Amino acid sequence: MVVASANNVDFMIKGVTKFQAFGQELWVTTTEIGLSIVTIVILIIAVIANRKMKRATEVPGTFQNIVEFVVEALDNMVNGTMGHNAKKFVNYIGTIFIFILFCNIGGLFGLRTPTGDFGVTFMLGLFTFGIVQYQGIKNHGIGHFTSLFQPFPVLFPINLIGEITNPLSQALRLFGNMMSGVVIMGLWYGMMPIFVKIGIPSFLHVYCDVFSGCIQTYVFCMLTMVYVNDKMD
User: Fold this and answer.
1) Per residue in 114-124, pLDDT tens?
2) Cβ of 173: how many Cβ atoms within 10 Å?
3) Exposure winner among 27, 139, 145, 198, fewest CB in 10 A?
């Protein structure tokens, strides 16, 4: 059995094209291309869904059924976790759920999974962090900061570290799980002989992209809702 060399393994972020801006050399990478494709696909689906739902019928077709199922499922998920606060955040949670899910399953369509880039997941974590801090200040005022000294002032460093590391842990969890799938698929396609690259990778894609992608999307959104809801009451 002839196995390809490790040099054929490819799971790194690649620079596709470069350009100059503000005196600096900048690269368009596979991450930016993946994010652009995902965004365009979501926008196209959103426009079509909007037009279809404006002409919704009492006897829905397949597409209308899918749209209604997705909206209802997301609405139930947010309501079940956030309760009376759900109405304020259902649109945001629904948006990041769909965005992260499409990014996670990008490997099925030949993309390098965008969420396999820590820069992407870190920004998603920062968005959550910003919303959490805003809601904490909005609803509790100075109490948002004094709570870091509870139940004892000596615990302030631990409470502060815990507050700061929440978005980092979210980002690392999503990145680590998706990057592991990228590495597994890269090793399989790069080092296995040709006859095992047909058929078998589809089962790996189902686990690494679909199963793991759905689970990690749900976990990220669930943690976001829990963190935000904690600052609402």
Assistant:
1) 898 899 999 99
2) 16
3) 198
